[in-house]
Amino acid sequence: MIRLYTLPGLAFNMPHMSSCLTAGYLLRKKIDVAHIDLSIKFLDSCLNANYIKTNLISRYLKLSHDEKEILNGIETSINIMKSRNESTEKILNANMNFGKALNVFASLYNLKWHINGMGFNYKVTTVDDLLELSFYEENSIFDYIFSKELSNSIEDIIILSIKYPYQMPFALRFSKLLKEKNKKIKIILTGDYITNIKENCTELINKCNYIDAVVFNGYQKALVKVFNYYHDGKSSAIPNTIYRNSKNELIIGETRKDTINDINDYIPSFDNLDLSKYLSNIRIIPLILNYGCYHSKCSFCSRYYYYGGYCRLDIKAICKLIKEQYENNKIEGIYFVDECVPPEILLEVSKYLIDNKIKIKWLVETRIEKSFLNKDISKLMYESGCREISFGIESYNKRILKHMKKDLDLKVAKEVMKNFCLNGISVSATFMVNYPTEYISNTIKTLFFIKNFKYLDGFRLSKFMYLRNSFLVNNSNIDPAADLNIVYVLKSDKHTISNWLVNKFYETKKIKKYNEIRNKVLYRTELIYLDKSLLSLNYKK
């Protein structure tokens, strides 16, 4: 039996795709799995006035009057965010108040909690830094829900799925509590972040005896093999894995990029998860239609590294799962969380939803492709329930796009976005500034495009940072093994003028108004059911 934990600190609006995919894979391999989402356990158990005033009264009393009022209103915000009969304005205000309450709650532990994750008042660079933070007495924000799991975790295998760096200290802390309760259990770490710090994991396991194995690259086959080893005791190197054998020796497998030949087993499972518990006005599930990115060339991106390859999953099996979830779990929305989805797959899914009379709303992120110029595709997607599509544009400059290896034609991009927008689907795009070799004139062109292109409903603008395991980092002098972080800002990069331009951009009337409203939206999934006229940069009823 395996207990698979999604660690707390992720979004509260829907289950996490990585854990659900792992659960589904293991179940299809005839391995019993209990899947527990600790974010929802935390939401249920701790984010209420009774818990705060019973367990944290001394910390609560030190808050200001305004901070206490914010916390006192947390349950009201939660109820509105889960209600089915509230206006967009009321839901947005509840979003904003819930976000504030999360941050005030975290401040009781000297932490910061915002939409992008959790921040520590402690710099983590080395494995030693990580271990010190993990077992620091005050770093106990999730200890209550961890302790609730100790009596349940009597099985011999525990899998902790870690997506972001800020979850890692809590993974180690939870592991310590589990091992102190039962030394016989085996603890396996997996997930995006574990893959990204592959070079540091041998040191981590050597220094942290609570961890028995790490599995890289979302390599579900390896999880099965490690599970089998801990049952039959036959020791051998397993690709993309480091694990302890019975003699406490580390067995280190080779890094391998295997072609996935068992795609029928890559179907997520939502068993053990009560979808009504999640913080959303409609029941939403995440799904993927591909394994990896079919482009996998962008110089700034590191997602290709996690997957180690690309393949299309069994679309017919996923469509069948959608129908089952629609009929049995009453789902009303889907977030396709792929890196990007080929147009022909979106067309196949859209036709299936229409033919089977599945009335849901959905959103997706993908690439600009010439085939999207066919207006019939966007019409069909809208008819099937697509209400939000997001494209990675990144820059409004041909030279920069070429350097990024985006393979993107800006003329095609504008026509595609116009096509989707005119057919009723909200169009969002991501952009970045301060990319290496970017001039001020390039920044100005990108900002001008965002502000003035009338077929753009939403945007996310970020400042370029080096991502560990991206092509840019791999071809630079940066040494990722010397730092546990996965995002780097070089001191040599000075962007004083472009940063000033971005600040001025956000001060313009149109962008300021848009930003004030969009900052209230905690989760992108809400964009498929809230009033578009209030949320859009350009759309008006």
In words, what does this structure look like?
This protein is an alpha/beta fold. The protein has two domains: about 170 residues, 3-Layer(aba) Sandwich (Rossmann fold); about 260 residues, Alpha-Beta Horseshoe (pyruvate-formate lyase- activating enzyme). A seven-stranded mixed β-sheet has the order 2-1-5-6-7-8-9, sandwiched between helices. Strands 10-13-14-15-16-17 form a six-stranded parallel β-sheet. Strands 3-4 form a two-stranded antiparallel ribbon. Strand 1, helix 1 and strand 2 form a beta-alpha-beta unit. Helix 5 packs across helix 7, helix 16 packs across helix 17 and helix 20 packs parallel to helix 22. The longest helix is centred in the N-terminal third of the chain and has 20 residues.
**Can you identify the CATH class of the largest domain?**
Alpha Beta
Cross-sheet strand order for the largest sheet: 2-1-5-6-7-8-9
| Topology-level CATH name of the largest domain | pyruvate-formate lyase- activating enzyme
- In CATH, what is the homologous superfamily of the largest domain? tm_1862 like domain
